[in-house]
Structure to design on (132 residues):
């Protein structure tokens, strides 16, 4: 549901897979029979669900979008490639340390230059003649 790829997952009898947080949200209700939020098939939490660890190679090969997709990042690739991409992604939401405004990483330099540029002072040229 959330798009995260955790090491531990919960698999329903309908084969949909959930991270621990999403699974907790699904079973939060105290009914004896619950429904998968994806296909609405019913399941019994204690009988149908078992925590499992996904194999590292399998997880690294899953296809994902960058977490910053909503900010305009177009990265789409494997989890392994995402690990390399993520640190250099230009679509992180940052907070300007000078004014606390939200700014995309790709816009930070231009933001600082335009919003926080110190005005240039006009200084009269020095006279080379002796003072009178």
């Amino acid at each position: 549901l959330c798009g995260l790829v955790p090491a531990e997952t919960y698999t329903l009898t309908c084969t949909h897979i959930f991270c621990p947080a999403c699974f907790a949200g699904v079973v939060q209700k105290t009914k004896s029979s619950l429904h998968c939020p994806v296909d609405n098939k019913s399941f019994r939490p204690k009988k149908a669900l078992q925590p499992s660890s996904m194999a590292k190679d399998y997880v690294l090969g899953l296809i994902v979008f960058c977490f910053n997709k909503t900010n305009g990042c177009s990265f789409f690739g494997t989890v392994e490639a995402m690990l390399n991409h993520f640190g250099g992604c230009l679509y992180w939401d940052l907070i300007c340390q000078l004014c606390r405004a939200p700014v995309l990483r790709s816009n930070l330099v231009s933001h600082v230059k335009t919003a926080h540029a110190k005005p240039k002072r006009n200084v009269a040229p020095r006279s080379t003649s002796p003072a009178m």
Observations:
- Helices lie at 20-26, 45-48, 56-61, 79-86, 108-115.
- The mean pLDDT is 83.
